[in-house]
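In this section we walk through a basic example: taking a raw amino acid sequence and producing a predicted 3D structure, encoded as discrete structure tokens. The instruction is simple. Fold the sequence below.
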Amino acid sequence: MFKRCPGVRSLIEPQIIIRKCPFCGEEMEFFEYETQLECPRCGKIVHREPTETCLSWCDYADKCISDLENKGLISKLRVEELRKFIRGR
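The resulting token sequence is shown next.
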């Protein structure tokens, strides 16, 4: 059994994923919770290769986000970003 949720680390300290734009080759940085970005060079929408995050499947994701916010571990802006991600799943 886990002492704490194994996915919480990525909510507090999101990892950066590097991917090259398939259209122009520009190196792009995605936070692990982002699924698509506009390429700064060519303007095309680039999708990150999918990876599983607890926000995409956990029934308690919203409660977890609230707990992290209440403990002061994530900012209000981060809370809004994460809740937007949950609504889009």
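Looking at the output, two observations stand out. The CA atoms of residues 65 and 71 lie 10 Å apart. The mean pLDDT is 83. In the next section we compare this with other chains.
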